[in-house]
Amino acid sequence: MKLVFSDLPMKKELHAFKYAVDGNATIEYDGEVIFPVNSVLAKTMKKGEKVKVILLSKNDIEGNSSINAGYFQKELNKINREIGAEIEYTTIATPFEETRNIHETLLKDMINKLEKDAEIIGDITYGPKPLPIIMFSVMNFAEKFFKAKIKNIVYGKVDFKNIDDGKTIPINPVLYDLTPLYYLNSLTNAMEYKTSEDAVKALNTLIDL
Fold this sequence. Notes:
Blueprint lengths: L1 E6 L12 E3 L13 H9 L5 E10 L4 H17 L5 E10 L4 H12 L7 E5 L6 H17 L2 E14 L5 E10 L1 H12 L5 H13 L1
Helix pairs in contact: 3-4
């Protein structure tokens, strides 16, 4: 089965793009999406496959995050009409505060959603800055104790261009697959060398491969 973690945006104005993919052409999707991970799912979901989507929401002042959870489901359900996967949605909502208690609660709640032998896909495009750190921690736990396979960690990047009325519009959408960065971090955690010089030399060798 697939297990998907996706941060939700806290803004009201959303834009759909056809994302060009940097580094992994197998997940490049011809359609437009608001939520970058849905382009990955459009390319990787299979008929009858179980897909568990965990949406990470923040209780923002205007309630946009919870509203955007509905937009996410609507977008992915539309994509799935031609695929036929079995999708289950869950939302984990936390206060928009970056305290240790909230981080630990979110970490535990995400771990409680893990499934053994799952393929995990993550999207860190939206949401506050601590969320990618928490997601990486959950994935490390899933690999070690649930025999999970980390398939894709994606980030959708745009540039912002000023227009005549003083507003900005997003342009040049690119989808980056950050999975190699995740695995590089896992490798450095497992490295054991007697000196810092040896460790740096080994790391440089790994990066240059």
